[in-house]
Design a protein that fits this description.
By secondary structure, the chain is α+β, with helices and mostly antiparallel strands. The chain contains 3 helices and 15 strands. Strands 2, 3, 4, 6, 7, 11 and 12 form a 7-stranded antiparallel beta sheet that branches.
């Protein structure tokens, strides 16, 4: 092949693959606006309500961080009970090795509610679902977050979407108050929406806040 032909071939390859590659990944900003407070949920509200560090990942349909009616993994249990993400991150690493998960997401903690947590991340089209959690603190085993948020619809990246954040009980501790003693649940119960008086009022379940995912680049 002549130099001219080789150059033409390289140009064609770059021209053909460039626009496609640009669509294979996208950058997003995840923002949690936590409205949980003594005003929204006054029943036994703790002296200082706060949230643990945010942890999450982009993944495909073969990975599940949490789901109503399922039992919590060891990693989710430790986040929900004490805000420690190390075991969950190890589970992420194993899921990534199996091709089910791609980007690990690590956001800051919130020392006092209400408030906001924000973090940026990159997703690719093979792992275009988003899941994340953060501990409701103090609590026996309660958390908030979202699972399987679609970052692509109709073959295109979304521009923005919002999800309501609810309080969840991981089913790993029998405690029923914010500052309950550690009472390990044996057998482990299923994950479920927390419908205790702490979040259930005459108006219904009170949300923790809202998560907004916005495309910012790529």
């Amino acid at each position: 092949m002549s130099r001219l032909s080789l150059a033409a071939a390289v140009f064609c390859m770059l021209f053909m693959t460039g626009p496609v590659s640009a669509q294979q990944s996208a950058e997003f900003e995840l923002t949690l606006d936590l409205t949980w407070s003594a005003e929204t949920t006054p029943f036994e509200f703790p002296a200082v309500g706060h949230m643990s560090s945010l942890v999450g990942a982009t993944h495909n349909a073969r990975y599940v961080l949490f789901r109503d009616g399922d039992t919590a993994s060891s990693g989710l249990e430790l986040v929900a009970e004490n805000g420690r993400p190390a075991t969950l991150k190890a589970e992420f690493a194993e899921a990534k090795r199996r091709g089910r998960l791609d980007t690990e997401i690590n956001g800051p903690k919130l020392d006092k509610v209400p408030g906001r947590i924000s973090v940026r991340f990159v997703a690719n089209e093979k792992h275009s679902l988003l899941s994340f959690v953060t501990m409701i603190a103090p609590s026996p085993d309660w958390f908030t977050g979202a699972a399987d948020v679609a970052l692509r619809t109709g073959g295109n990246w979304i521009n923005t979407t919002s999800v309501t954040l609810w309080a969840w009980d991981s089913g790993t501790d029998h405690g029923t108050t914010y500052n309950a003693e550690d009472i390990d649940a044996q057998p482990q119960q299923s994950i479920r929406l927390l419908a205790s008086p702490h979040f259930l009022t005459k108006r219904g379940l009170v949300p923790m806040g809202t998560a907004t995912i916005t495309r910012v680049g790529l």
